[in-house]
């Protein structure tokens, strides 16, 4: 994004407001915002790892905001419904310009075409397989606003959250294969709460932690899972740690970074599960059939088996976590 923004600011005709806050919606951690005035920026990012990156590097960061601002920059997500909702949100908050930046793989071309049909657009600046364009804030996009409540199959979801159109088939398969669980259970990467809602039909579960990095999805889970045994955690599932080791972990881990498959995400979830489980604890997970998780599971657990599955999915049980070995600290040598 920085190359497109730099061109727009230096020679493309984009002028920042002289005063007031500039809100940046949904920037990824790898985005370079150095061409914008840091002391006037507000980062709006509900995804915890990206939120933490900007917070830890000194930016004012929030998970959500409805505060009026002088200008808004929308960083396009993959989901079309969410992209449209963000543009409507930006228009409702901005007193001046709304800028939109995105890659071709995130659908910036079709979104630009849709905007051109409604408003006068400046730019676009094309660079690095993407586009940046801008226009004056307007109420023309009010019909793109996110619904006040989005219900699917009796569950609250929201634009852009994982499986927003209904329960993910892999999660359905996992829930159907699970035995009765007991004690302290963790839903790692809980999303909007489908697995947890099913788990809580079991009275043997005493505590259920829902750990989810997307604050929007977690807010949906709060509405879908209303049970005094639950605890909600806005956290990166790969680094979250409970106060005490737990009895069981259930999970349908993500396996994409952008549009590219990235099995390392699932492996990080497996590592996290092994870390938080008690010595006799069990991991129950589902994955697409082709994903190579078995090697990581056998490295981190004493027993691994497939308990259910079909041509698309596999449901795996892993028991008795093996603690990761700490790296040896080299001894100092005298000189």
TrEMBL record:
CDD domains with a match to the protein in the record: AdoMet_MTases
GO molecular function annotations of the record: N-methyltransferase activity; nucleic acid binding; S-adenosylmethionine-dependent methyltransferase activity
Domain of life from the UniProt record: Bacteria
Lineage: Bacteria, Pseudomonadati, Pseudomonadota, Alphaproteobacteria, Rhodobacterales
Record bears the keyword Cytoplasm: yes
Name of the protein in question: Class I SAM-dependent methyltransferase
Methyltransferase small domain mapped to chain residues: 155-317
Record bears the keyword Protease: no
PROSITE patterns linked: N6_MTASE
Keywords assigned: Cytoplasm, Methyltransferase, rRNA processing, S-adenosyl-L-methionine, Transferase
SUPFAM superfamilies from the UniProt entry: S-adenosyl-L-methionine-dependent methyltransferases
Gene Ontology terms: biological process: methylation; rRNA processing
